[in-house]
Design brief:
The complex is a heterodimer of chains A (about 325) and B (about 210). Chain A is an all-alpha fold. Helix content of chain A is about 75%, strand content about 0%. In chain A, α5 packs antiparallel against α6. In chain B, a hairpin with a 2-residue loop joins β3 and β4. In chain B, strands 1, 2, 3, 4, 5, 6, 7, 8, 9, 10 and 11 form an 11-stranded mixed β-sheet that branches. Chain B is globular and about 50 Å long. The longest helix of chain B is centred in the N-terminal third of the chain and has 16 residues. In chain B, about 20% of the residues lie in helices and about 35% in strands. Chain B has 4 helices and 11 strands, in the order αββααββββββββαβ. Classes of the chains: A mainly alpha (about 325), B alpha+beta (about 210).
Chain lengths: ~325, ~210
């Protein structure tokens, strides 16, 4: 089989898989407002958990419900602060396994850009922190200063979420534009990257290309895109703490949650980085199509980010989808 | 090459399968099955009490006169939003008999009340629009959220009753099976089966009101 023939077959497989998963994505199944119009689900159309995820859901429900008691207890017993922080952290760890915490975006981003493990961890932590900050700012600005209702807050988070998905889509588009060109070159049997005048090497995969340069603007965009969307759990805990006159406890709980979320997202991101490393080993072993495989992987990840952003945004903005209900 | 394909597929679908919700809202439900003069069901009347944190969240900023109490009038806009938003979720109320589905109309008589410890209760009545089961025909009403954003549990005492039902008709509540140790073990074993999306797992948390006539 010719190199480009193989590549097209790979492309078809990856494309088919992406389409299948996108179609199976429950975002199409449900509208955007949430069942009570206040407090939006973490992702439009998040399905009920199955298997392992049901177990995770049960755990985080347990921690989440214990949070209200911990917040109340602080008023009489300052030592309860530690249990609040511990509970929030544990909740964050399990919670991040659910939708809307940037696992998919961060992992795909790492695959597309070739960032390594350490940068992956840093990105995950920053994204979680940005999400916490958004929640704190939304609640702080809207309820403390303006006295907004939960309904107004719902509207604000709706648009923040839409902006987040739009930004994710845009990030995916930019990455796909860059990586897609490499893939097209590979499909024509050309070297994946253009050799500059001072580039005299003769090999399949350029290590510099593999590791990728630190593009902080691009990384910042990824963090912002994910972090724009506040997590519903954090909003509810913050407002509840505020109503108890313990706003600071709510802020601490939110930050501890972000810590737990970062841990899970980083673990999944590490998985993505590891998967790509495996691909790279094979690529270096067989440079003939290694570069093409790498290009395919990166372009595929970029396409995934774009699809994710578009699907989620589309699911939000169109309340009456043919598949709804 | 094959392991990559698998890793890729796993990674792709992890994103999709991982998009499973967990409750952010807990509801303690009480329901009534309301009958008309002809002995047929005319409506389901719900009273749903929300958990402490969601109640606190939902009522944020609604105490218009700042007296620390929430009146039905102050809560009216929220009640309106609640029932409007619930429409898309079919009010989490699924009436069935045989292989037919009872079709409900838009809710009437809805309001919110703020009870002890600030717990919020949403009252609403769902009139039957079409497909009312014939007089004396057994049917069931399931109350659950297939997306599992809301966790429903029926009240410990007086969870369900009938209103002006024909003689001999009554309602029994079938609660979802409580997850036990063996089940959570089974759950962790089914990690990989859990990666396949599409199963309507929420149904296993369903509460079923069984209406039968002697």
């Amino acid at each position: 089989m010719s190199r480009s023939g193989l590549l097209w077959r790979l492309l078809a497989i990856a494309g088919g898989a992406a389409l299948f998963c996108a179609a199976a994505h429950p975002a199409w199944a449900q509208g955007a407002a949430g069942p009570f119009g206040v407090g939006r689900p973490d992702a439009p159309g998040a399905g009920a958990p199955t298997g392992f995820f049901a177990w995770i859901a049960a755990k985080q429900s347990l921690f989440y419900q214990a949070l209200s008691h911990a917040i109340r207890a602080i008023r009489t017993d300052p030592a309860a602060l530690w249990s609040l922080i511990g509970l929030s952290f544990a909740y964050g760890v399990f919670h991040a396994a659910g939708p809307g915490h940037g696992k998919a975006v961060i992992s795909s981003y790492l695959v597309a850009t070739g960032e390594g493990f350490r940068r992956g961890v840093a990105l995950s932590a920053l994204a979680a922190l940005a999400q916490a900050a958004t929640a704190i700012v939304v609640v702080g600005a809207l309820t403390m200063l303006v006295g907004a209702t939960s309904m107004a807050m719902g509207a604000a988070t709706y648009w923040l979420e839409a902006a987040s998905y739009a930004a994710i889509g845009a990030l995916g588009a930019v990455l796909l534009w860059r990586k897609g060109r490499g893939l097209l070159r590979a499909a024509r049997g050309l070297p994946v990257h253009v050799h500059g005048p001072d580039c005299a090497h003769e090999h399949g995969v350029d290590p510099a290309l593999v590791q990728g340069r630190v593009d902080w603007r691009r990384a910042g965009a990824a963090v912002l895109a994910v972090g724009l969307r506040p997590c519903t759990g954090a909003l509810i805990v913050l407002v509840f703490a505020l109503a108890q006159g313990l706003a600071w406890a709510g802020v601490l709980a939110t930050l501890a949650m972000a810590g737990g979320t970062a841990l899970t997202v980083a673990a999944i991101a590490a998985l993505a980085v590891g998967a790509k490393a495996t691909a790279l080993r094979i690529a270096t072993a067989r440079p003939s199509f290694g570069g093409a495989l790498l290009a395919l992987l990166e372009a595929g990840a970029a396409a995934l980010i774009l699809t994710f952003g578009l699907v989620m945004l589309g699911g939000m903005l169109s309340d009456t989808l043919p598949l709804a209900g | 090459m094959i392991p990559i394909r698998f890793l890729l597929a796993l990674l792709f679908c992890l994103a999709a399968a991982g998009a499973s919700a967990h409750p952010h809202v807990w509801v303690t439900a009480r329901s009534e099955i309301v009958y008309g003069d002809d002995g047929q069901i005319t409506a389901v009347r719900h009273a749903w009490t929300f958990d402490e944190m969601f109640s606190s969240f939902a009522t944020q900023g609604l105490d218009a006169n700042g007296d620390g109490k929430l009146t039905r009038e102050e809560l009216a806009p929220l009640a309106e939003v609640n029932v409007t938003s619930l429409a898309e979720f079919k009010f989490f109320t699924f009436g069935k008999f045989g292989d037919k589905r009872v079709v409900f109309d838009k809710p009437v008589d809805y309001w919110l009340e703020s009870g002890p410890q600030g717990l919020l209760t949403l009252h609403f009545t769902l009139p039957v629009k079409e497909n009312a089961p014939a007089k004396g025909e057994p049917f069931r009403v399931e109350v659950y959220d297939p997306t599992y954003f809301v966790a429903f549990e029926f009240a410990k005492d007086n969870p369900a009753r009938t209103v002006s039902a024909p003689d001999g008709c009554g309602v029994d509540l079938e609660r979802p099976k409580a997850p036990d140790a063996t089940q959570s073990k089974k759950l962790s074993e089914s990690f990989f089966s859990g990666l396949s999306p599409g199963a309507n797992f929420g149904a296993q948390f369903s509460n079923t009101l069984l209406v039968t006539c002697r």
